Amino acid sequence: MAPEIHYQLIVNRVAELHQEARDHRRASEAVAGRKARESGSPKRVRATFGKLRTS
Prior knowledge:
- This protein has 2 helices and no strands.
- The protein has helices spanning 3-39, 42-54.
C-alpha cells in the first residue's frame, strides 16, 4: 500500500473515531440530563430555593 493512501486511511479513521466520541458524549449528556430532570436533583432544588431566598 502506498504511504499516501495509508496516511489518508489513518486520517479518515481518526475523523470517524472523533465523530463517534462526540456522539457518545452527547448521548451520555442527554441521559444524565434526563435522569436529573426525572429525579429532581437536590442541586437543582437547592438552587431554586437559593434564588427565592435572595429575591
